[in-house]
Write a structure and sequence with these properties.
Length: 197
Amino acid sequence: MTDHDSLITALRGGNAGERERAASELFAEPDPRAEEALLEALYDREAGVRGQAALAIGSLKSRQAVPRLLELTQDSDWFVRVAALNGLGYIDPALPAEPALAALGDEESLVRQAAALNIGGSTDPAAVAALTDALLHDSDFGVREFAADALGEIGDPQAVDSLRHAGRLWRVVLSWRVVRAARRALRRIEAAGSAAS
């Protein structure tokens, strides 16, 4: 069993590697007593520490962390941006929707993937248009797959034609994961439409 007191101590006073490792272990085994130390670690000069702290504080569902996590979605380090989006999503699936919409245009594909993964709680009509564009045009197939899933989660019928296009069998040659996700999203939207009528 992990000694959380020593992890909190390392997070506050260890070297960079120890601080990052402590935050990572506190993500794996959340402890509410670490909340204050993790909030401080969100300002650490080392990107790895900030990123791991963002994930760990998210796993604690800390509302106190939300303003700083929103700032970190604009961090200069891509890992921190990914972790901040995911941390917000752990706290509340609706929280990362607005920053995720902006992050769909990020130059780093892993940030765009995290954005698509975390935008499903959005009620912003612009999210459907941005996700549809990502589904059909993003250069990264992981982004396309997560965009399809997010469109299914949002459930807007406006996405149906684009999902049908992405779900056509010939596209399996390009990426079967995107095809599968598009078909899954279509089933979800169609089921919601049947339930509503």
